[in-house]
Amino acid sequence: MRYWYVSINNSYKHRGSNVRSIQMKHEHSIVELTDEATPKEIDNCKLVYLGRGWWNDKHIQINYNNYVGRK
Which pTM does this prediction carry? Predict the structure, then answer.
């Protein structure tokens, strides 16, 4: 299982083997981690939690679409 986040300020830095992928978009980045982000990472990178699971899971897609819809 993976933890999915959106980085609002598009400045997520790799922190080692816990980062599975980062998909850079124009206004945000989609970050896939193997464990939960630390509070410091959440604050520094302005991470928004999307959910735990696989990218195609319905709850993650709903949370992502809700985030994108707010912009």
Answer: 0.82
pLDDT (0 to 100) of residue 52: 97
Tell me 17's DSSP state: T
Q: How far is CA 29 from CA 40, 56, in A?
A: 17, 17
Using CB atoms within 10 Å of the CB of residue 3, give its burial: 0 to 12 exposed, 13 to 18 middle, 19+ buried.
buried
10 backbone dihedrals φ, ψ, rounded to 5°: 60, 30
At residue 51, what are phi and psi to the nearest 5 degrees? Answer: 150, 175
- The gap from C-alpha 30 to its chain's centroid, in whole angstroms, comes to 5
